[in-house]
Design a protein that fits this description.
It is a single chain. The protein is built from five helices and no strands. It is mostly helical. It has one domain (11-167). The protein starts with 6 loop residues before the first helix and ends in a 10-residue tail after the last helix.
């Protein structure tokens, strides 16, 4: 006999159906769905970059000031994670908007996580709890979004500008309606 789904699982399923699927169960927009899944992949890539690089960076910068160590420990893994994420821009020649949209999804996920954290903190000492959350999750994710989202958006804008100029400079084809 199938196990009954919990109320939270049912709510998540309902939310995802409304967001991604139409009445027949088909995806509403492939770009919306694929960019969301790509955003989850990007979060995992950034998580791996932080997990792999934080200990070596801590040992390397042990003599530096706290501010310098924090800046290095936020920027280096973010840049290292951004390289494969932005490189995926070139892997989708027909759907170049997927990578910038994935970074927009990451912004939405960051806002949702920050709001959800407000429900989890101990309100007797809320600022300390929220600071810990900011240092561990929010600031690294925000720095990662900036390090990867800005180049991806600039690449996309450059390609869109180039495509627009090509359309404007294309020779006009004769039309039966112009006679």
């Amino acid at each position: 006999m199938a196990k009954e789904r919990s109320a939270i699982q049912r709510k998540i399923d309902q939310f995802l159906r409304v967001l991604f699927l139409d009445e027949k169960g088909a995806p509403k927009s492939a770009v919306l769905l694929y960019s969301f899944l790509l955003a989850i992949l990007f979060v995992l890539i950034y998580l791996a970059a932080y997990l792999l690089l934080l200990d070596p960076l801590e040992q390397l910068c042990s003599g530096a000031s706290v501010a310098a160590r924090n800046i290095i420990q936020y920027l280096v893994p973010a840049i290292a994670g951004s390289v494969p994420c932005v490189a995926l821009y070139f892997a989708f020649p027909k759907k170049k908007q997927l990578v910038p949209y994935a970074f927009l999804w990451m912004v939405a996920l960051l806002v949702a996580i920050m709001l959800f954290e407000l429900l989890l903190i101990d309100w007797s000492d809320a600022w300390t709890d929220y600071q810990l959350f900011l240092v561990i999750l929010a600031i690294p994710l925000a720095v990662s979004i900036l390090c990867g989202g800005i180049p991806a958006t600039l690449l996309y804008r450059k390609d869109m500008k180039k495509a627009r100029e090509e359309r404007e400079n294309a020779p006009k084809r004769p039309s039966y309606y112009n006679t």
